[in-house]
Amino acid sequence: MKLGMGVRGGLLAALIMLATPFAATLAVGLASSPASAQTVDSIQVEGNRRVEASTIRSYFKPGVGGKLDQGRLDDGLKGLIETGLFQDVKINTAGGRVVVTVIENPVIGRVVFEGNKKIKDEQLTGEIQSKPRGTLSRPMVQSDAQRISDIYHHAGRYDVSVVPEIIEQPNNRVDLIFTITEGNKTGINSIEFVGNTTYSAYRLKDVIKTRESNLLSFLGGNDVYDPDRIEADRDLIRRYYLKHGFADVQVVAALTEYDPQRKGFLVTYKIEEGQQYRVGSVNFQSSIPALDGNVLARFSRVNVGSLYNAEALEKSVEEMQIEASRRGFAFAVVKPRGDRDFQTHTVSIVFAIDEGPRTYIERINVRGNTRTRDYVIRREFDIAEGDAYNRALVDRAERRLKNLDFFKSVKIATEPGSSSDRVILNVELEEKSTGDFSVSGGYSTTDGPLAEVSVSERNLLGRGLFGKVSVTYGEYARGLTVSFVEPYLLDYRVALGLDAYYREQLPNTYISYETKTIGFSPRIGLQLREDLSMQLRYSIYQQQVSLPSYLDNCNNNPNNGLPFNPSPAFANTAAGQSLIQSLIPGGVDPSGTGLWCYSDGEASLPVRKELAAGSTITSAVGYTFDYNTLDNNKNPTDGLLIDWKQDFAGVGGDVIYLKSALDVKYYTPLVADIVSIIHLQGGVMTQVGNNAIRMLDQFQEGPNLVRGFAPNGIGPRDINPYGTQDALGGTQYWGASLEFQMPFWFLPKEVGLKGAVYADAGWLGDYKGPTDWATTGEVNLPGCIPPTNNGSANPAAPGTCLGLQYDPGNVVRTSVGVGLIWQSPFGPLRFDYAIPITKGKYDVVQQFKFGGGTSF
Questions:
Q1: Is 839 exposed, middle or buried (0-12, 13-18, 19+ CB in 10 A)?
Q2: Closest residue by Cα to residue 579 from 603, 563, 556, 600
Q3: At 772, phi and psi to the nearest 5?
Q4: For tag attachment on the chain, is the N or C end more exposed, with fewer CB atoms within 10 Å?
Q5: CATH of domain 107-181
Q6: For 621-637, what is each residue's pLDDT tens digit?
């Protein structure tokens, strides 16, 4: 027992002896730990110049009892480093105190860009974070260099290098210099499609925005590599297939590969087309008792038997949901459901109308509009704060804002409101320049060289107004036009347009007279549907005709003032002698001016009538209906365009008539990228009462009706052999054309060349203008009777009125031809060569025609 207790006592003593040093060390450590004894106020700050010591101490947050432990010191250290104000931060203990030693980052004096020619300093300055008078942060500098590189990448320059350089200056200041080597543009060398069996690569290249590089790429920008645009093109391809019946289509990938040897990218789109579907059935099911789904059927754009069209389906849902809201069902939601039949390749579509969540719009926040007034944006919404939330109306507002073309980007997002039944709409905008200054130039075989300078603003004063002033000057045409449009008249979605203009049409190869027109025209435009619009207009203009001096004299009359050159057989008759004496007493012209002279090339009687009438005022009201389902307004391949318009002149003014015109174009794609175009047109002028129709108001036609003929080259014509043989026009016309446009498959798509073959037929006639001397207000010759043999080439034939001799031109003109169409960087150009098959005796042929121009 004593031995055991002795052993235990010895062990205990040994343990106490071993533990004593550790206890002493622990006690010393605790006594010297700053966290256990120091407070924020006792922290000593060293090395700071600009940053206040109190600011540095504020990053250290005390714990319980106001003490700082080691963890809180570490948090303070991290916070100071993250400010970016310091190159280095250290925490030490000295004499039982916490010492924070900092080395401040220098201040940036200047930020300079060197070597940048393609992107301006202002753009780069706005994109980087390092700013003059800011603190230099090396990580931030590296981030800025990368950001500059990204900007050049989006501009298609992947060879760019950006080297930042820091130059020290006195007083802890530095200059920051970014040296940029821009390199050449990195273009798209080739665009390939894999898996496309229905549509050729040629057709799909029309769908996407990206283009392959070619010799004229420097005039555009869509041939440079932009990953965002490549991704957007994937969606365009998918939507194109969905629009044409391919409900299962997938654009699996857009692969890009850089070819260092060719210094460009190879882009490959992988497509899985699937089957093409048609609509098998369309049904409407409503779970809302008071709303019959069939009443929304007329708003459906989906028809049984037609190709499945996802775009038409989306528009149907939108219009049906809006109609349900108009009927008082503000929370109704229309959801389409499509059941595919893989055997028959049809889709059964069901529009399910259900009651959606009862959610209201608490607030609409508009952000990013630095110039555009707030109300200009809000008026594009058909809903307001406090209304029921309707996603279809929100999507429509977003589309309208994009169509304004005031903004680079438009995005409407939702966030929860103050309660579960409230949402907040955030409209995020990025504005862009809306002013345009353009110089346009062109040349045509009709008008010769022509130039136009115009200044326009789409968002005038930030109020959404449109204004434009343009000046035109050419060899045969000159003018000035001032236009103004208020798109929301009296806060309604009705556009009011005002146009004032002055135009001169000078004599040229196709007309002998000059016209000057000054006018004013207000108009009102209404968008009835997305594919249907209407315009109401009023026009009042003054028109004056003048002639060159050599067409308005009788000084060179070799017939001693006679208005004709009588044949000897007629002059020697009693009737001839009597007529000569009645015209010129004594056989001479006492005034020396002569009468109505044809012998030296005078203008036609209808022209002389307008010349004698002086200025003529026309006051007319009219309207136009446009129906447009074209897939592309600039380069259509599918769809229908119908234009119907009527104008009634006689609301005051000097002339009265009713003019009607119809123009129809139907495009449809055929095999191998060939597009057929059927063009039908026609017009009628109706005489009101006994009021004669002026020659200048009648239809004048040429190659726009039947190619292969000159402007004003067909229809009734003055055929006096001593006159200018002016075209007289007609009160009726019709035309029909069939054209096939096809690509040149052996040329790259980017060249933009297409060929065309066509056949035209048309007719212009029923001239109803003045035909004799009496109607001109001049001399009514004795014995003159209305002509019974129009077309006579001898105005002095006995028994014939010495008035207008004209060919009525009752012939159907036909022609065939070929054309070359170039969608060039200089604008659209077209060359046509047509051969008339049938024509009138006095028609003017012009087999070659060229026209086009551009803006820059």
A1: buried
A2: 563
A3: -135, 175
A4: N
A5: 3.10.20.310
A6: 999 999 998 888 878 88
